[in-house]
Amino acid sequence: MQKILSVVGARPNFMKIAPIHKEFTNHPEIKHLICHTGQHYDKKMSEIFFTDLELPKPDFYLGVGSGTHAEQTAGIMIKFEKVLEKENPDLIIVVGDVNSTIACSLTAAKMGIKIAHIEAGLRSFDNTMPEEINRILTDRISDYLFVSEKAGLRNLKHEGADEKKIFFVGNTMIDSLVNYLPKAENSQIFEKLKLHENYILITLHRPANVDSDIFISQLYKTLSVLSKHRKIVFPIHPRTRKNLELHSNNDEISERVIFTEPLGYIDFLALTKNAELIITDSGGIQEESTFLGVQCITVRDNTERPSTVEIGTNQLIGTNMEKVESAAIEVLGGKKKTGSIPELWDGSTAKRIVKILTN
Ligand code: UD1
Predict the structure, then answer these.
(1) Given this chain, do its domains 2-171+344-358 and 183-332 carry the same CATH topology?
(2) Would you state the pLDDT for residue 255?
(3) Is the CB of 156 under 6 A from ligand 1?
C-alpha cells in the first residue's frame, strides 16, 4: 500500500488540502495521513477550518506555533523529521508558500522522500516576500510540480525545471470553493453582522503593510472615507489586530465599519461571494474573487497570480491607501472590471492530481 502524507500549517493551506483528502477517500489502496505543523494555532485560524472543510483530526500535530522565520522553520523541521522517521511515507504533499511548506519539503528532500508541490511555479519576482523564497526553494526540490495557472508553467520552464515533473492541473482551492458554495448560501453571517445592504469586504495581514505605522494611519483615514460610501466588514488577522490596537483612534472609525475576529471558511465565503468590492493583500482571495466575478483591489505592488489581473476581476493598486481609496470609489461608482475564469479552475483539480499520483 502506498503511503502519502499531506502537510498543512497555516490558514490558506486547509482549503487546498481538503479536496485532496476527500479524493483519497475514493482510493483504498492509498493510506493518506495529515500532519498539521501548528504554524497557525488559534481556534479561528485553524480548528474552525477542519470543521468547515470536513477534514479529519490530523494524524500528527507538531504544535510549533509562532516565532521568527528561522525559529518557526527550524522548529517544524526538527519535529517533522521524527514524523517521517516513524512513518516513512512514499510521498509528501505540500501546498502554497508558507513556512510550513518549505520546512517540510526540505526535511523530506534530505531523507530521500518524494515531494509533490501543489500551487507550484507562482512567482511575484519579489524576494523581499518570505513566501517568494519558500516558493522558489520548494519547487527546486519537488518531484511533482502541480501548477494552478498558466504563469506557473512559464516560470517553471524559464527556470529550467524538468518538464516531466510539471503538471498543469488547476486550482485545488477552487475545488473547495465549488464544493462549499451551496453551504455558504445558508450562512447566518449576514444576520449575525446585521448586514443587509451592499458592503466592502477588507482583509489585510501582510507584514510589509500592517507592520508599517504610515500604512496603519493611512488605513484609518481610508476606512473613515470609504465607510461614508458603503458599510465595511473587516475580519482581522491576529497580526493586524495587534497593530491596529497600538494605533487605535476610535473617533476616526465610524460604526459603519464592522470589525470581526477571523472568520471560518463558510462564513467568509458567503461574505466574499456577496461583496460589492473586496480590498485585500491576501493571495488566495485574489483567486476566489476572480472565480466568483467579484471586484477585487489588491493592496500590493505585485502578484504571483497574474491571471487574476489579466483575465479576472482583480486590480493591482499598490500599497498607498490614498490610491486604494480612489480606485475603490471608482468601482463603487460603476467602473467595474469584467472578468473570466482561468483555465482548469473547475472544481476537479484534486481528481486530476490524485489520478497522476496513483498512476
Ligand atoms: C502566514 C504566511 C502567509 C499567509 C498567512 C495567512 C508565512 C511566511 N506566511 O503569515 O503567507 O498569507 O499565514 O494568514 O508562512 N498568530 C496568532 N494566532 C495564530 C497564528 C498567528 O495570534 O493562530 C499571530 C502571531 O502573533 C504570529 C503572527 O500572527 O506571530 C504571524 O503568524 P505567522 O504564522 O508567523 O505568519 P502570518 O503572518 O499569519
Answers:
(1) yes
(2) 83
(3) no
pLDDT band at 251 (very low <50, low <70, confident <90, very high): low
- Tell me the per-residue pLDDT of 305-318, one tens digit each, with 9 for 90 and over: 999 999 999 999 99
Residue 45 Cβ < 6 Å to ligand 1: yes
With a 6 Å cutoff on the Cβ, whether 243 touches ligand 1 is no
Looking at ligand 1, which residue's alpha carbon is closest to its atom 32? 66
Q: How many angstroms separate the CA atoms of 11 and 33, rounded? A: 18
What integer pLDDT is reported at residue 126 of this predicted model?
97
Q: Is 205 a catalytic residue?
A: yes
The reply to whether ligand 1 has any atom less than 6 angstroms from the CB of 318 is no
User: What CATH code is assigned to 2-171+344-358?
Assistant: 3.40.50.2000
pLDDT band for 55, please (50, 70, 90 cuts): very high
Per-domain residue ranges of the chain? 2-171+344-358, 183-332
* CA 101 to ligand 1: nearest atom: 15
- Residue of 41, 49, 98, 135 to mutate, ligand 1, most atoms within 8 A of C-beta: 98
What's the sign of the alpha-carbon dihedral 162, 165, 171, 172? negative
Question: Model pTM greater than 0.90?
Answer: yes
CATH superfamily of 183-332: Glycogen Phosphorylase B; (3.40.50.2000)
Strand residues in the chain grouped as ranges (E)? 2-8, 30-36, 60-61, 91-95, 114-120, 144-147, 166-168, 199-203, 231-235, 257-260, 277-280, 296-298, 314-316
